[in-house]
Specification:
11 helices, Rossmann fold, seven-stranded parallel beta sheet, alpha/beta, elongated, five-stranded parallel beta sheet, 2 domains
Length: 330
């Protein structure tokens, strides 16, 4: 099978290298017949697309190189596009994707790092760290006493690999975990799981709320001003989903009014967040520049293992585990 890896030209932290590929082949010797090329420029991409069957690349590369109508002409043999991101909302709508080309995401690569970040964020909020660090910048000695996580209620919206890892860590600290997902299927690390349609009934019980869902037309604006108002007074929110999943101005208003105690967001609208934006200066809001889930030391190892697992499944006539359903967006 002919594989091509297209790295972005300016990528310095996460380029997939021949050495990493060789190490992955050593872990998966049954796939040693794969033929691979690497490029980070237009010439290398064009040359590889003449015969590539599988493309592994970044979503921004897919967005730039495959406008509607470009396929299959510029890559007549392409069967699989594997993205290094889990969320592929920036590629929607998927009218550029022909029926004969399989789109894979990188679901699973982020779970370990993101689960630890989620736990850190919960611990920070339980100890009022967003408020304390704001007081430090103003040189104010303002004691605030926090609580343990044990016995508190966490609502996790989105129970994919990231939400599942967060739920597992929270349960390990003795939290009561309420899950919310599209289908509402039981989850081993949740005390209860509810459908997204029941979110209004779950929110009043959420002392902590963690957003981990993909961005789709169903989840865009999911945590709006009305739903923020349904959270209990003093609730704490972590957004690890996308900036468009919540109303960030309403979250700032709720912090200013004292309805929310603290927020930590790894995402924003727009990104990067410009100087002077309200999110930077709202007391109780901690802004993280979209780095919660990526570990440069392990990310490409997991990415290649996930790709090889999908290629093995396809070779064996099984469904690819990371296949994206364009009708759902994930």
């Amino acid at each position: 099978m002919r594989i091509h890896v297209q790295n972005p030209a300016a990528e310095r932290l996460f380029p997939i290298t021949p050495a990493q590929w060789g190490a992955a082949l050593a872990r998966h010797p049954e796939l040693s017949d794969l033929r691979v090329s690497f490029a980070d420029n237009d010439h290398g991409f064009a040359a590889a697309m003449r015969d590539a069957e599988v493309l592994l690349t970044w979503t921004k590369e897919v967005k730039a190189r495959f406008p509607p109508g470009a396929l299959p002409d510029i890559a007549p043999h392409l069967r699989v596009i594997a993205c290094t991101s889990a969320g592929l909302d920036r590629l929607a709508p998927f009218d550029w994707l022909p029926d004969g080309v399989l789109l894979l995401n990188n679901r699973g690569a982020h779970a370990a790092k993101a689960g630890e970040f989620a736990l850190m964020a919960l611990l920070m909020l339980a100890s009022h760290m967003p408020r304390i660090t704001a007081a430090q910048r103003e040189e104010r000695w303002e004691p605030r006493f926090g609580s343990v996580l044990g016995g508190r209620t966490l609502c996790v919206v989105g129970l994919g690999t990231i939400g599942g890892a967060a739920a597992r860590h929270a349960r390990g600290f003795g939290m009561r975990v309420l899950g919310v997902s599209r289908g509402g299927a039981p989850h081993p690390d949740c005390d209860e799981v509810h459908r997204t349609t029941a979110l209004d009934e779950v929110l009043p019980h959420a002392e902590f709320l963690l957003l981990c869902c993909p961005l789709t037309e169903e989840t865009r604006g999911l945590l709006d001003r009305r739903r923020i108002g349904r959270l209990p007074v003093g609730a704490k929110v972590v957004n690890m989903a996308r900036g468009a999943v919540w109303d960030q101005d309403a979250a700032c208003d709720a912090l200013d009014a004292g309805h929310l105690d603290g927020c930590i967001t790894d995402v924003a609208l727009p990104e990067p967040l410009p100087p002077g934006h309200r999110l930077w200066r709202t007391p109780g809001m901690t802004v993280v520049p979209h780095v919660s889930s990526d570990d440069p030391g392990t990310y490409n190892v997991r990415t290649l293992d996930i790709l090889f697992g999908n290629l093995r499944a396809m070779r064996d006539g099984k469904p690819a585990p990371n296949r994206v359903d364009p009708s759902r967006g994930y």
